[in-house]
Design a protein that fits this description.
This protein is α/β, with parallel strands linked by helices. It is built from ten helices and eight strands. Strand 3, helix 4 and strand 4 (102-105) form a beta-alpha-beta unit. The two termini are 12 Å apart.
C-alpha cells in the first residue's frame, strides 16, 4: 500500500516553515519530508512534529545549500571525501533523533575527469558510511536529477547509473530514490524501470511533467503508475514533491483523489 508524505519545501514556499507541518496535519496527512536539516531549529521542529503526530520520512544528507550540480562537497571529488563523509555521518545522527528512515544523497557535479573515476569515488564514499547507516537503520537513497530542465551538469542523471552504484556498493542501507518527475524528463520508460528494479528503490518522489506540478496537471498517468508500483509490492514512502499550480486546497484534493483511485 502506498504510504504518502508531503514535501514541506516544494508544496509550500511562502509559509513559515514550522507552520507548514500544521497545514499538512490539517489536510489529514501524517508524514513529511524536507531538504536541508542543518539550517532548521531542530528542537522546535521536534516539538511541532510531535504536537501534530507527524513523522519525518526523508531529508537530505548534506550541509550545503544551492543547486546540487554546483556543490563544493561533491562525492565525485576525492578531495572532498572527508567533508562528504562528515556530512553524511552528521545527517545519520539527526535521522536517528527523528526516527527518519531515509537520507537523500546528492552526489554533486560531473567534474573534468573520467566518469569511471567519479563513479568509483562515489562508491568509495558510500562503502565507508554504509556500515554506520546500517547500524542506525537508515537508508541512504541516491537521487538522479534531470539535465534538460533543472540540473545540467549533475553527475547522476540516468536511473541505470544509479542502480549500478547501488549494486556496486552492495549494502542494504544504500538504495535509489526514484523521482518520477526527474526520470520522465531524463529518460522516460517509467513503469518498466520502476517495476523491474523495485528491490533497489528505497524511496519515490512524484510530480507531473511538464512544470513539476501536482499529479493530473501534465502528461503522466499517475493512477496507472501508482497502481503498478503498489501491485509490484513496493511498501515504502512516496513523497509528493511538487509546486502547486493553483491553491493549496486544490493541490491536496488532487493528492487525495489519486490515492483513492
Amino acid at each position: 500500500m502506498i504510504q504518502p508524505d508531503i514535501s514541506l519545501e516544494m508544496v509550500y514556499e511562502n509559509e513559515p516553515f514550522l507552520d507548514r507541518i500544521d497545514h499538512v496535519a490539517d489536510h489529514g496527512f501524517d508524514a513529511v519530508e524536507f531538504a536541508t536539516w542543518f539550517d532548521k531549529d531542530l528542537d522546535a521542529l521536534e516539538i511541532r512534529l510531535d504536537k501534530n503526530d507527524i513523522s519525518l520520512t526523508a531529508m537530505a544528507a548534506i550541509q550545503e545549500t544551492g543547486m546540487p550540480q554546483d556543490f563544493d562537497r561533491a562525492m565525485t571529488d576525492p578531495e572532498q571525501r572527508e567533508a562528504v563523509i562528515e556530512d553524511i555521518e552528521n545527517s545519520i545522527q539527526v535521522a536517528q533523533r527523528f526516527d527518519c528512515p531515509n537520507l537523500i544523497v546528492l552526489v554533486g557535479p560531473e567534474l573534468e575527469r573520467p566518469r569511471d573515476e567519479q563513479f568509483d569515488n562515489i562508491v568509495d564514499c558510500l562503502r565507508e558510511v554504509a556500515p554506520e547507516a546500517e547500524a542506525a537503520g537508515v537508508s541512504l537513497v541516491l537521487e538522479p536529477l534531470n539535465h534538460p530542465v533543472d540540473h545540467p551538469g549533475f553527475f547522476l542523471e540516468q536511473s541505470q547509473t544509479g542502480f549500478e552504484l547501488v549494486r556496486e556498493v552492495d549494502s542494504p542501507a544504500v538504495n535509489l530514490l526514484f523521482d518520477i518527475y526527474h526520470q520522465q524528463v531524463a529518460e522516460g520508460n517509467i513503469l518498466a524501470t520502476v517495476t523491474e528494479n523495485l528491490d533497489d528503490i528505497g524511496h519515490i518522489h512524484i510530480a507531473d511533467v511538464p512544470g513539476r506540478h501536482e499529479p493530473g496537471t501534465g502528461e503522466l498517468h499517475y493512477s496507472n503508475i501508482l497502481s503498478a508500483i503498489d501491485n509490484a509490492g513496493y511498501d515504502g514512502q512516496v513523497g509528493f514533491e511538487f509546486s502547486p499550480i493553483s491553491t493549496e486546497k486544490a493541490a491536496f484534493s488532487a493528492i487525495r483523489s489519486l490515492l483513492a483511485d
